[in-house]
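Progress report, Aim 2. The chain analyzed during this reporting quarter is listed below.
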Amino acid sequence: MITRAQLYELVWNKPSVRVAKSLAVSGPGLKRICERYRIDTPPRGYWARRRVGQKVEQPILGGDPKQLIRAHFRIKDERGPQRSAASDSWDDAAGNDRGNTAVSDRTPPGHR
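Predicted structure tokens for the chain:
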């Protein structure tokens, strides 16, 4: 688990796409987590303005910066299978569950 302060530092020092990828969550998933824990995220155009040297404002993190974020992040690693902290299943490097996949009896013929 990470603290609000750690996630705040991540989202204000790297583009959210990179942060989300490193935490093995989607971009919208990261945004929802930030909203749930009241962590402001950079607005559109922030990284472009920062890159060209324009002054950009970063809001101060309010609330308890030491509060733990209760989300299941999984640091992506290219070395192969890894175990998720959120479950007892093993995933391959692409994030695909290698267990059996159940197919519903309601699936139309030709789609099984």
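Residues 4-13 form the longest helix (10 residues). Strands lie at 2-3, 68-69, 82-83, 90-91. These observations will guide the mutagenesis work planned for the next reporting period.
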